[in-house]
Every structure is written in C-alpha cells, then in structure tokens.
Amino acid sequence: MPQFDPSVFSPQLFWLLVTFIALYWLVSKVAVPRVGEVLEQRARVIQEDLDRAVQLKAETDAAAAAYEKAMADARSQAQDHMQAMQAELKAVAEKRTADISAQIGKQVSDAEQRIGAAKQSALDAMKGIAADTARDVVAKLTSLTPDTGAVDAAVAAALKETR
Prior knowledge:
Oligomer: single chain
C-alpha cells in the first residue's frame, strides 16, 4: 500500500494540508454564511410569527372584551325593557282594578238603593196591609168602623216597638 510508505508522507501531508485549508476556506466562506443566513431567516420568520400571534391574541382579546361588553349592554337593555314593561303592565292592571272597583262600588250602591227602596216599599205595603187587616178585624169583632188615622197610628206604633 503506497499510503503507508514513509517516503511519500510529506507530499501526502502537504496535499492533506492544502485540501484541509481549501475545504476550511470553502466551508467558512460559502457554507457557513449560507447556513447562518438560513438560520437568521428562520429566526426572523419565527419572530414575525410570534409577533403576529401576539398581535392576533391582543385583537382576539379586544374582540372578546367588546363581545362581553355588548352582551352586558344587551342584557342591561333587556332588563330595563322588562322593568319598563312590568311597570306599564302594573299601571294598566291597577287602572283596570280601579275601574272595576269603581264599577262594582257603583253597582253595590245602586243595589243598596234598590234594596232600600224595595224594603221601604215592602214596609209601606205591610203597613197598608196591617192597617187594612186591623180595620177589618176591628170591624168584624166590634161591628164598628174604626178611624183610619187612629188605626194607621196604632200600626206605626206597633211596628216601632218591633224594630
């Protein structure tokens, strides 16, 4: 094997050194800068993506906050509307209750007046019937015709005693 011959070691070492330097120069001047550029570009893209993600998260948080505020405002408006409707319905119910109470009060008053009138009419009729009956009884028992004023006064006095 010629590579193990000590007489050819120095040219082999020379060419090894030349090849090593050429390879070192090629790697350091061509390959490493390209790899560095690729790494820098990747780092820049990753940082841009991270920055964009932070920005999008901030926008999402702002949109969520706006949504929550809009929902809270909508709930508040709905509750205010419901309270207004309840107040309006309560006012209508109270007005109707007052109207119905007034109607019932008027009907009760009218009924009391009719009952009073019917009672008075019945009492007057009863007085008349009692006076006629008392006159007829006295006339049959005594064969005398009693005085109408005296019989009416006696019936009125008897009715006052029973009350």
